[in-house]
Description:
The chain is mainly beta. Strand 7 (102-116) and strand 8 (122-127) form a beta hairpin. Helices cover 13% and strands 38% of the residues. The chain folds into 2 domains: 1-27 and 291-314; 34-289, no CATH class.
Amino acid sequence: MLNQGAYATKVLVGTVVWTVGIIVFGTPVQADFLSFNPTGNAANPAFTIGGIDLAPGNALARGAVPLTVEKTFELDFQSGLTGLINTNGLTFAPPGLNTTYQLTAVGSFTEVVTFVSPDQTMAEFKLAPVQASNSFFELYYNPAMVANSLTGTGFNQGTLILSAKPSTTLASVGLFSLSPGQTGPPFPALDQFGSANNYPGITTVSGSGSALINADVTYFNPAFFLSPVIRLSFNSSIVAPFGQVNPSASFTNQAGGGPPNVTANTGSINGVTGPDFQFQADPNISFTTPEPTSIIMAGLGFASVVCLHVWMKK
């Protein structure tokens, strides 16, 4: 029979160690670097990176027009990776990226308008405190080059390598300002990428801004992410009209793959007629990993709880 005083002491010790492990583990820090294999194939090299750089892509603020304070809207996004960010903060393309395989990003977030200037030339927004049930962010690997910015297809096909949910407890902010003189017609063409205008007759307001979104990682594929990741920070420039990529005709607002289920509807003047507002987004992503000592402490805490069962029999 275990002495009651000794039993209480052992329970207290085990509980304290477990609690400390949980507290420390639940307090992540921003890691400088992580180990990432862009193909998920151990025969190919992994790289130590500080983040990933996405190519100019598409974002669609569904139902955002006209902008009013406290209005909520869904922000759909899609793009492909242009490279990895090395330990000096420089972007490089690993062998085969966008020639023998693609890495793509797709997401949907619930946003709320927090400020609109009296002259309607500037607006601020952030993640809504209550996210739609379909809010998500995902990264995919595909050995086939199937992503098409013009049609909006192929961004959520292949192998899922990471998924996340928008974090409403961490900082998020967005800002968009109209260019001087863009409060009325004439408006420029929406599609100014390449020699062909794929949206004849569709014009747009002109402006720029930025956005920051944080998300909690719910899954990562260890064949690609050789370091564990628990959070990501998504920051992007946003502009209109489109100059570096074609405007997408369709988007997806559902996690888990599948064909696009949203058709962009900007009307004849993007940003004015609505109901949607479409803009070019050029993001990069950094990741948060758990501090190594946090994992050790959490493991010690778990081990101490297991040991209690052994001690109680003594």
